[in-house]
Design a protein that fits this description.
The protein is α+β, with helices and mostly antiparallel strands and about 500 residues long. The chain has helices at about 50-60, 95-105, 110-130, 165-175, 190-195, 200-215, 225-235, 240-245, 250-260, 270-285, 290-300, 305-310, 370-385; strands spanning about 5, 10-15, 20-25, 35-40, 75-80, 80-90, 90-95, 150-155, 160, 340-345, 355, 360, 420-425, 430-435, 440, 445-450, 455-460, 470, 480-485. It starts with a strand and ends in a 26-residue tail after the last strand.
């Protein structure tokens, strides 16, 4: 038996923190029961009018995103003084946990499924980016938090993006309190890391990061701390996937690198272009990408869990609900009794705030805004995607029809070196070497750079040659070879005869 909460029966705690809870719940009775996810916000956090307005507006906006590749928000309201959002329940797992699970059982994710997942996620992004309100005005949505944790894969082969409204709210809070609210630095675009204005191309870049990491089995931008990671994102040094993992078809290199162009103008200009490129590649190379095949893979990978959840007693065991009776969340003094509910199917057009004569979540009293807004948004960003499980081990993708690569010996569990050592050579030799603007010697030169200081700019100069530049990052190999171009000689016209013109140079046909 679950714990009653208005029209719901709370079945299981998915995640919780100091700001609220994410719960699996049952809605309806008898043959009309269905599973949903509830996000409940602690009452004291919605006593602030600024947070309340943000919470309400973002929920209303996201409720308009009705697309098969976006997890639906069905309704939002208040029950017994507790504000909540009801979301679609996706029976499955997020991409980060899937890759960890696949690694644990010695499997890789087939490359066709990687293309399917990224293409479907791009379809959901494109729909959101181009969404309009009831008056036809573009909503201008940007997800801002596209990452493996926010892409869910269902046991039925479905692909769902989550946390659209939350990411939009997080963007507003970050704008209000710069430096307080942090996103996932390893999945930011360079312009996001710089704090610049964002558009849909920032989400394309973030999805490109997910694609690169799934193809190579490695992390693209991951420093020893947030600052180092942010430097890597800004430097945007991206090797071709096939150069990192030889089993990746070379034809995917230009697609991935275009999505990860540092300059937004050189990327795919919307998520639909990225989706089309991936689907065309799969079609031309006869790579299976069907939902049924992805479903079979998921059901095989999670066979034990699926069988366990099929038992009705599953939700009665280890639910974690011992502290979640209705009285566990205190009711604020000014809260109305009963429930006020807004259903996505009954939303009025425009920005109306009345439904059948009832005000939508009556605004609470004012109090100190900033700490509560930031705290609640951080909660919603973090807990809805589950607990972050750390850096995954390297997992090589499975490529149908391509011989498997030679498996490298397992990496010893020793600490990673704290310094990057790179042997810098040039053509011609003897060029002056500058690291971060300081002259350090001549080529050939062994550079020793602490990883916390990466990325570091390298500049080579030599008499009669154009300067050569590069950037040292965590992805730089043990040797950096730079070829320098000779300077073009400037031909000065003669001063005498022919009116100062060279008779041997034609100026017209």
């Amino acid at each position: 038996m679950g714990i009653p909460f208005g029209r719901y029966q709370l079945l299981k705690k998915i995640a919780s923190g100091g700001m609220g809870q994410v719960l699996l719940a049952k809605k309806g009775q008898d043959d009309f029961e269905k599973l949903v996810v509830l996000k409940r916000i602690l009452p004291h956090l919605v006593e602030d009018e600024e947070f309340f307005t943000m919470f309400r507006d973002e929920a209303k906006i996201t409720m308009r995103l009705d697309h098969p590749n976006i997890a639906r928000i069905n309704e939002f309201g208040v029950e017994a003084g507790v504000h909540y959002i009801e979301m679609e329940y996706v029976a499955g797992e997020d991409v980060r946990r899937i890759e960890k699970r696949a690694a644990a059982v010695g499997k890789g994710i087939p490359i066709g499924f990687i293309l399917k997942i990224i293409a479907d996620a791009a379809a959901g992004l494109d729909f959101a980016h181009k969404a309009r309100d009831a008056k036809g005005v573009p909503l201008g949505l940007v997800h801002r938090d596209v990452s493996p944790q926010n892409v869910l894969i269902g046991f039925d082969g479905s692909v769902k993006l989550i946390d659209f409204g939350v990411a939009k709210a997080a963007g507003r809070a970050q704008h209000t309190a710069t430096g307080i609210l942090k996103g996932k630095f390893p999945y930011m675009s360079p312009e996001q890391a710089q704090g610049e204005e964002l558009d849909c191309r920032s989400d394309v870049f973030a999805l490109g990061i997910v694609l690169w990491e799934q193809l190579t089995g490695r992390r693209l931008f991951k420093g020893e701390n947030d600052l180092a990671t942010q430097r890597l994102v800004r430097a945007c040094q991206v090797p071709a996937p096939s150069s990192v993992e030889p089993s990746v078809p070379a034809g995917l290199d230009p697609i991935t690198l275009k999505a990860l162009s540092k300059d937004p103008a050189e990327r795919y200009q919307d998520a639909a272009e990225l989706r089309n490129a991936l689907e065309d590649f799969a079609l031309q190379n006869a790579i299976p990408t069907s939902s049924s095949s992805l479903a079979a893979f998921m059901q095989d990978l999670y066979a034990e869990r699926i069988a366990k959840e099929a038992d009705p007693r599953f939700f009665e065991e280890d639910s974690g609900l011992t502290d979640l009776d209705v009285g566990g969340l205190s009711k604020p003094a000014n809260a109305a009794s009963g429930a006020t509910v807004v259903d996505r199917n009954k939303l009025p057009p425009g920005n109306a705030t009345q439904v059948h004569g009832t005000q939508l979540l009556p605004p609470p009293s004012k109090s100190s805004p900033l700490p509560k807004v930031v705290g609640a948004v951080v909660l919603l960003l973090g807990i809805s995607a589950g607990v972050y499980l750390g850096t995954r081990p390297d997992v090589k993708p499975v490529v149908e029809g391509v011989p498997p690569p030679v498996v490298a010996a397992p990496v010893e569990a020793n600490p990673q070196p704290r310094a990057l050592v790179v042997h810098i050579v040039s053509e011609p030799s003897g060029a002056s070497v500058e690291l971060a603007g300081a002259n350090v010697g001549q080529t050939p030169f062994d550079a020793h750079v602490e990883k916390v200081k990466l990325p570091v700019a390298v500049r080579l100069t030599a008499e009669g040659y154009e300067p050569a530049e590069a950037t040292l990052t965590d992805m730089t190999g043990p040797t950096l070879s730079l070829a320098m171009k000779k300077k073009v000689a400037v031909v000065k016209p003669p001063t005498g005869g022919s009116g100062g013109k060279n008779p041997d140079i034609k100026t017209s046909r």
